[in-house]
Write a structure and sequence with these properties.
0% of the residues lie in helices and 41% in strands. It is mostly beta strands and 116 residues long. The chain is globular, with a radius of gyration of 16 Å. The chain starts with 17 loop residues before the first strand and ends in a 16-residue tail after the last strand.
């Protein structure tokens, strides 16, 4: 009998696709921007599908696109710093496990707990 796997995640993942801009700096100091897609999100991080490999430990800025020319909505975050924990190549894109610099919820908070 195989031992029961131990779940290391602190927050539940939500299978939600969100378009994102990934802003980063290459080794030569050039600013790069790429369009990518979040495949699932938790309070602690995101699984990202992108065309380019993000190196282990690389810090990036993830931005949710907002309408141009619209006034911003107060108290709504649209950008998040994240660090790459892993990057796995697939046939068409890279899957990158990203951890947010600061969690979106306090420790043990459950993003899936909604009032009934």
């Amino acid at each position: 009998m195989l031992p029961k796997s131990v779940e290391r995640r602190r927050w539940n993942r939500i299978p939600l696709t969100i378009p994102l801009f990934v802003r980063r700096t290459d080794p030569n100091g050039r600013q790069l921007i790429e369009f990518a897609t979040a495949l699932n999100v938790s309070a602690g991080g995101v699984l990202l599908a992108s065309r380019h490999d993000l190196g282990y430990g690389e810090m990036v800025l993830l931005e949710i696109p907002t309408p141009i020319g619209r006034p911003s909505i107060s108290n709504v975050r649209t950008s998040f710093k994240a660090i790459t924990l892993r990057s796995i190549p697939t046939r068409y894109y890279f899957l990158s496990g990203m951890q947010f610099e600061h969690p979106l919820l306090p420790e043990g908070g459950d993003a899936l707990s909604l009032p009934r």
